[in-house]
Write a structure and sequence with these properties.
single chain; alpha+beta; D-amino Acid Aminotransferase, Chain A, domain 1; D-amino Acid Aminotransferase, Chain A, domain 2; 2 domains; 9-stranded mixed sheet; 26% helix; binds pyridoxal-5'-phosphate; binds 2-OXO-4-methylpentanoic acid
């Protein structure tokens, strides 16, 4: 399905090594990309593995006007056995198909999605950092038809690009600070909150900017109807840790069904902890933090993995979580997840998907 076109000027090994030393997040890109096109008459076609380069896009391309775009975020890791593996990539393929359906876009068949991602991981395998780094993969699809009428487009481009990445938060493993947004909501019932579409993030940026202005790492969104129930962060799901019980907001349709979230639920249950997926209000959060009943809070997602929350700020004040550091449950769940992702611990749920060299 994919034709490989030779790269005319791949990055020299010494420059690549220098870029891999401290890649940050989302700033350094590998040499290649994978592309596929879809048209209503031909379906998916023209699969290519080729040099990463700018797209030629008509100024009337529907994505530039009506934001018909969906994406995924997933990682490839160097594993303890010297190989390379993806973490639960079939879940990303499934979520991508659901996001596409919600945005009235054609589904990329799961096998094709996986082939595209694997092709990029293989050709850019030298870009996977060692140590605590990983290769962040960004599959995405957008409406490329030149047409200004408002209806689902009849031409799309699917693409996968990759970034070698280190820690998402600049403070590394330091606990993060959250800002609870009073003015903005991210998603409403019946909307696109559970789809991974660019528009959700566009609408969240003003709230994220407000969080940054207030010295916080991430914004917390409350529900649209009552502005009371905690939903999720700008780019992560959230867990509240009580004695022997974890609470996380339910998949109401307004939050992203995180693959890290699902993995944490499974690991916690394996460890004998009870997990309650239920609404949790901001008023309870404040009261439980004050009483000490709430032991730990953490955020989780592909980019951030598992990040402890040390403090919560809002228009009316601020409150600490525990002693403001990584608590024992947060640390244990993070270590277990990371060990599985890197092939350093048994993988009882078969989450790792090895990518073998071709
Ligand atoms: N919520 C939002 C809004 C996100 O952008 C992400 C990141 O992908 C997540 C949650 C976590 O999802 P996952 O664990 O699948 O990366
Ligand atoms: C991810 O974790 O993959 C995301 O898309 C979230 C974003 C903060 C990078």
């Amino acid at each position: 399905m994919f034709t490989t076109l030779p790269h005319p000027r791949a990055t020299p090994a010494d420059l690549r090594a220098a870029l891999l030393e401290n890649p940050g997040f989302g700033k350094v890109f590998t040499d290649h990309m994978v592309t596929l096109r879809w048209t209503s008459d031909q379906g998916w076609h023209d699969g290519q593995v080729r040099a990463r380069e700018p797209f030629m896009l008509d100024p009337a391309a529907a994505v530039l006007h009506y934001a018909q775009e969906v994406f995924e975020g997933m990682k490839a890791y160097k594993t303890a056995d010297g190989g390379v593996a993806l973490f639960r990539p079939a879940e990303n393929a499934r979520r991508f198909a659901r996001s596409a359906e919600r945005l009235a876009m054609p589904a990329v068949p799961q096998a094709l999605f996986l082939q595209a991602v694997e092709a990029l991981v293989k050709i850019d395998a030298d870009w996977i950092p060692g140590g605590e780094g990983s290769l962040y993969l960004r599959p995405f699809m957008f409406a490329s038809e030149a047409f200004l009428g408002v209806r689902p487009a009849e031409a799309y481009t699917f693409c996968v690009i990759a970034c070698p990445v280190g820690a998402y938060f600049k403070g590394g493993a330091k606990a993060i600070t959250l800002w609870v947004s009073d003015d903005y909501t991210r998603a409403a019932p019946g909307g696109t909150g559970d789809a991974k579409c660019g528009g959700n993030y566009a609408g969240s940026l003003i709230a994220q900017a407000e969080a940054t202005r207030n010295g916080c790492d991430q914004v917390v969104f409350l529900d649209a109807a009552e502005h009371r129930w905690v939903e999720e962060l700008g780019g992560m799901n959230i867990f509240f840790v009580f004695d022997e019980v974890l609470v996380t907001p339910p998949l109401s349709g307004a939050i992203l069904p995180g693959i890290t979230r699902a993995s944490i639920i499974a690991l916690a249950q394996d460890a004998g902890l009870r997990v309650e997926e239920r609404p949790y209000g901001f008023d309870s959060w404040r009261a439980d933090a004050a009483s000490g009943r709430l032991r730990e809070v953490f955020a989780c997602g592909t980019a951030a993995v598992v990040a402890a929350v040390g403090e919560v700020r809002h228009a009316g004040g601020a409150f600490p979580i525990g002693d403001r550091t990584d608590g024992p449950i947060t640390r244990r769940l993070r270590e277990q997840l990371v060990a599985i992702q890197r092939g350093a611990a048994p993988d009882p749920h078969a989450w790792l998907h090895p990518v073998t060299a071709s």
